[in-house]
## 1
Amino acid sequence: MLKFIGSVAASNFKRLGSPFKVSWAVTYRCNLRCKMCNIWDKKDHPPEVNADEIGALFSRPHHVHWLGITGGEPFLRTDLIDIVDAALTPSKTLNALHFATNGSYTDRVENLVHTLKKRHKKLKIVFTVSIDGPEALHNHIRGIDGTWGRALATFKMLKKIPNVKPQFGFTLSHNNLDKFERTFLALGDVYPALTFDDMTVNVFQRSNFYYENHAMPELDPARLTREIQKILAMDKDRLSLNNFLRRKYLKLYLQFLKTRKSPVKCQSFASTCFLDPYGNLFPCAVYNRKLLNIKETVLSLNEIWQLKEALRIHNECARNKCPSCWSPCDAYSAMGGSIIPTVFK
């Protein structure tokens, strides 16, 4: 943990020699049909990165502390335990995992957590379970009946496991832009111990290669501003790391709405990157700027980070010469790399 904190602190002053966070979409396959995302409708599915390939990458020199696992729905991969374990086992620094899931596969989630905790005693595990509204609205947005109940079951199960932090992830989109308060109250009805520390709040993002939803219109800035201000006014919870980051993310989103540029310096290809299911390495999930494919190189992440093209892409992101997002996948890392501006903005 101290080394991770040290890497975050160092990212405030220099471009790191290796990413401290890798976001990895382990699959684009999904069992749901969400209205704000077209991942489920992707037509081509080349061979996904397997355990040997990810193990080879993480056995080479790197300083990754934090691995974010997302999809599609990651728990559709029947070898998920194997591929995550293949990354963890050879790593001297990797000790934190974050899983983003729709919560449909409670038994698979439980099995993975218990298995990984036995193999990696010091591992820190965080889950974000997607919830987009009260039950009927959530099921409508997700396109499949019963998804609310399964997501709740997964969250409640994870709450019973020591040293695992589950959260509900609410994404503001065209379909639920004024429904956060109703959603929070509905969750409180079925889980009375609910606090804001159990919540993350994100904003709908567009990407022409990840979500493939770039044809969808942007959210109305005035309505989005009002809803963010309403959520911030509701939030009277105690100070915690999650509460601090969520509040700052939303406050800075208000600034992003005015400028359409990242409110703090982007950390893509400085301390973070995005790996797609097929091994392609991108700066993030929004900027369609492939650097290389990990299946086709023997370079370590440390060496990849020193490539001239990696530095060139980072400079583009740092200077907002990119799609300029404020995506939560990268915003939290950006805030960590700009601590003083984040605290005082």
## 2
Amino acid sequence: MTARIQAILFDFGGTLDHDGIDWFDRFYRDIKKYDAALTRETFTDHSNWVSRHVGTLADTAGLNLADMVARLYKHLHARMSNGDPCAWDHAVLAQAFVAEAQTYLRRNLLLLQKLRQRYRIGVISNNWGNAAGWCEEYGYDTLCECMVDSTVVGAAKPDARIFQAALEQLQLPAEACAYVGDKFEADVIGAVNVGMKPIWMVGTEDKVCPDDSLPTRRLRQLTELETMTL
């Protein structure tokens, strides 16, 4: 008999602050509007370097969401311009990004308040140490029984250790938990490997499923969870 789902755990970036598009995909989308020659491969090289570099800065873990976005955009701008004029303004793009994210965060806070009446709630995020702070910033901390951050745990999704950290805090077996995230490898495969029920936040993007054999529910909008039977 399948265990009853008692808790829903959520990814943060791309899931709670958007319908299925992660941060660097959104950065690329917005920068590409000003730099048509920019390839995804080139951008990924830049974004991977910036993500690692920003993670080494002593005060990063204490930044609120807006300041973190501003820092990432600023470092991307510096690396991509290489001292030459750049067609896009990092501050303008950062402000627009945050405004969009806040719209989703406000909507999804109301959703989680409703879900909290039926399920226990938590967050598992590959982050820079900011996950709990951002949950508190946007009012999610009062709903979440765990706010697990890869930097704090020392393991990033799909590593089982980050999921196990959440399960230990909740004192629940994996099969009693559903996990919602927008990245197939990190979120879906990570959840499956520990025994959680995966729910893939595909949004409106044309995402190709790498493995149709996995029993994965899909969402185009996070609000569909309100009427979904788990």
## 3
Amino acid sequence: MGVKEFLTHVPEREMGGQTALDRFDYQTAWGVSRLLDLHEKGSNYAVAFEFHDDIVALDDADEPSSAIFYQVKTRATGNWSFAKITQRPSSRGIKKSSFAGKMFDNCVRFGATVERLVFVSNQPLPEVIVAHGEEKFSSAEKAKLEKFVKAISVEVDGYDDNVHTVLFFFFSRI
């Protein structure tokens, strides 16, 4: 068996790199798709990748007045839930930020310039029914939304349900 055959027939020891590339491919493809949507509208927009968030879109390239922050996450299978989005991983006994906490951090840093905070995924979030495009977290059933608000309020200082919950959206093309 030659070198090419060895490389193509022997199972790889790890798939972590490929998984990371698949996730970046999704993020890049989704970001380019968003960029094309904005371009089609003919507005003077700007889009940045891996700058303050996975993707950020500005309402104007020259004199922006608002920004939409996108947190792009993939899953091989299974649904998202508010509990998963607000889950805080621990490292050496220290709780890290949840996805929702990272999203909210944009409000802390950029205040009223934040137009929306959008969680984007290749898998659905059943709490929020999305036919195509974006849907507000606040469209969820009241009891489920209250759990989300409670979890994020515990995690971050200054979370105001009346002001901030309306900024959270979910995007899916499923």
## 4
Amino acid sequence: MAYFGHKKKIKKELEYQKSRLISRRNNNFQLFGLFYRSFFYFLAIAFFAILVYSLFFSQFLRINEVKIVGNQKLDSQMLMGVSQEVWNGKYLGIFPKNNFLLFPRGKVNDVLLENFKRIRQIKIEKVFPQSVLVEIVERDLLLVWCDSSNHCFLVDNEGFAYQQVSLDSKEVLENDLLKVTDQESQETSEGDKVLNKEKIEFLVKTRNELKGVDLGVENEFTLSSKLAQEVNLKTQNGWTIFISTEIEPSKTIDFLENFLNRQLSTEEVKQLEYVDLRVENRLYYKLKKDKEKESEESDQDETSLGSQLGNDCA
């Protein structure tokens, strides 16, 4: 009995020692696990901090060159100054805007379009790792559109009135723009499409044709309406030329020049009230006369010359 009691005691001691050993191992493993997790978190936080610093605060991705190209009339320094106000500074007072990843392309695009109406299109491209290329496409300034309320606008080659101006402004005077006056009562606003491309091309072509002849035509055309197929031109001597947009400008101007050189004397040219070329291969004109004779002879003048020039100049 004593033997079995002693054996049972030894067994209990072994079990106790084994349980203590297992408990010690578990404690060591927990300590190791805690250390491992702490070290992992430390490495993760350090990696994240280094990554954030490298991506947003280091010099490697800081924009050090913004290049503006494509502008012809707009001043590069003014463009740079306005855009720089956008990408200088920080988001939330922390993240720099002049960072390659955070550069505000959309905001720069909007601000430039808002401040420089002459810009038709902007393309902003980031060039890794420290450059930004801003490509400007300017509107082609062709004419000034003035409505019946004497509100004048710059018009691009697409026919859109994009900026209200005064006729004595620097931009109008320096570019020697053609003035087109609309006699309709409707007022014009920025962004309105006032002319189609075909009519713009006609007006510009007519102006270019007139530069090659000495007719003393002023740099101003008048339209009775946007849809009218006729244009009125005023000369420096006060007489008016009526032309049609459906007839090639070169043909109209040649016809007019031939008429003035062959049919009228210098004094008669000074007495002109108007010349009408709205009918192809026909020309009608009216001289300044006394009121009594005007009603009697105006029809005769128009009919006879229209017939004569129709044969001579067709």
